[in-house]
Amino acid sequence: MEQGTDVDQLGSASLGAVIARAGEGTIYEVDSRHDVVAKVFHPELKGLAEKRAKISAMTRLPPPLGTQPDGFVVLAWPSKLIDEPDGRTGFLMPRIDTSSAVEIHCISNPSHRADPRPSTPQWTKHITWQHLLTIASNLCLAVDAAHQAQAVIGDFQERNILVSDTARVTLVDCDSFQFTDDAGRQFLCGVGRPEFTAPELADVDLRQHPRETSSDLFALAVHIHLLLMGGNHPFLRGTWTKPGDQPTALHLASIGAWAGGPGSTLGSHSLAPSPEFLPLGLHRLFVKAFTEGADRPAARPSATEWRKALLAVRLIECRRGHQIPVDSANCPWCAIDNERERRRRTLTSLKTTANQQVSRTEPAPRSEAAPNPTNRSAPRSVASVAGTQDRKKAIPKTFRQAAANRRPPKVTTQSTTTNADLSEQVGRKLFTLFKLVAIPGVLVIALVTLWIFWVVISRLVGV
């Protein structure tokens, strides 16, 4: 906790506890004000003067749709500049209730949604496809609010989108937006994540090149795809149908090759729904955003078009209780569940087969006559001898049996040894050597074979 820094604009108030530290600055609570927080830039931040000018311009032009009538914050827009005599620069912005809000990837990713961390809100477990449609339409409202404020979101990535437990959406990090002030001066957004970057910006220096709102509409379509299509990115997860490795997401976006799209060289993944299950209106908007918009950014649907199509979707439940559009011929979620179950059964079967093959490579117990004719005890199995060899440093068997009987080893001189006796002794020694070398080798080969089976099976089933 850091306290005691006066904020002149708030009179006697001061900065309170540190809420978070980010790359550009530190976010503080504001004493006696529960509706705002303060972001103070690091003194060593590069381009601080430009940043201050941008914040000043943004505070003079508040977004008309930044806050809803009931007070819900849609855009965490800078509301007042902090410019203190001691050199500190920052701004005040609306406070967001993060106790019940999550970043959008916690919802679009089915695994995160179904199994949230214990320290995070647990309501995501109960989200249905209807909720995902509502969240997507509310995201469209937030994008439209930013564009009406003469801003381009720019760094339109998942960590800058918060979703409340009422399915409403807030865009944060608004000070990074590209913004045009009332005099026409542009303040650019120099950062962005590749998986949400429009293809026309792939080789552009974002610190020098202004963006168009159409680049936000590309990212909006990606976020909607993630929400509605089981968390699958349209240019990252699919089945590549051409020789060689799958290209990067930016390259696929530049040629309009999205998962399951018309004429696309990237097919739908077997554990992802095909876009064909979507209502015709939504499917058409994805085609405009990703296929037609690949080389014609102006063809991408607006946030208003997306919202209208999303709100028009009507749902029914399949026999297993999944929500699907009323005109869907089949339930994609049932198909995915069936494929997962098939893969689990295949994996179990292959594991069983591999274990059986390993067990068959183990030699069957066999007995042999004791080399000392005076020893009438029962012969030991090969496995027993092998274990004793490890323990007794592979002492020859005749010597071990003699020691066990507390008799000196039986010695036969060369002059009294017949050819048959000599052959028998040589044969026993060769057989002992075979057991020392062959059995461990077989076991090693079996273990390596089992490991290779496991790797191949894991890749086949996509785990």
Structure overview:
By secondary structure, this protein is of the alpha+beta class. Strand 14 and strand 15 (323-325) form a beta hairpin. The strands form five sheets. A five-stranded antiparallel β-sheet has the order 1-2-3-5-4, with helices on one face. The protein has a three-stranded antiparallel β-sheet with strand order 6-8-9. The chain is globular. The model is unreliable at 1-12 and 367-422 (pLDDT under 50). The longest helix is centred in the last third of the chain and has 43 residues, at 419-461. It is built from twelve helices and 15 strands. It has three domains: 1-95, Phosphorylase Kinase, domain 1; 97-330, Orthogonal Bundle (Transferase(Phosphotransferase), domain 1), CATH 1.10.510; 341-461, no CATH class. The two termini are 44 Å apart. It has helices at residues 48-60, 105-108, 110-114, 129-148, 213-228, 249-254, 280-291, 303-311, 332-361, 382-392, 397-404, 419-461, and strands at 15-21, 25-30, 33-41, 80-83, 89-94, 102-103, 151-152, 161-163, 169-171, 178-180, 186-187, 239-240, 266-267, 315-317, 323-325. Helix content is 38%, strand content 12%.
